[in-house]
Write the structure tokens for this entry.
Amino acid sequence: MALTVLSVLPEAADLDVRILATDIDPNMVAQGHAGVYSEEALEPAPATLWRRYFDRADRGQWVAGAQLKRLTAFRELNLIGDWPMRGRFDVIFCRNVVIYFDDATQERVWSRFTPIMTPGATLYIGHSERVSGPAAAQLHTAGLTTYRLGGRP
């Protein structure tokens, strides 16, 4: 995600643009925070991008550079636990997560997103997921896996 942002807005790390990357697994959060990737893992991205924003490490490993690290924060988050976020989000990616929850829990998660989204913000979900419950009145379809908060797209 950060590479995509930097590819269209190279000065993003110096602006009010931040990516909050979360997972319930502390090991995944630690791995993301470390920012170390094999060259093989980076190959799907254009080489010009990852060679620009990653620094070469040992044995075919690359580590996220300063701009990537300033742009991205890694935190533990349990979607059905307490949420410490105070700010609002312009975009939320929650893909292929809520399919593991029962219907009532899915509706609760969707409803927790709307108060932390800015008006017109976009929510991206997985292909087999659909927003349901009270949040469906606020999150309007903008594509198969895309919802927009507020007025119809």
Summary: The chain has a mean pLDDT of 94. The two ends are 24 Å apart (CA to CA). The first strand starts at residue 19 and ends at 23.
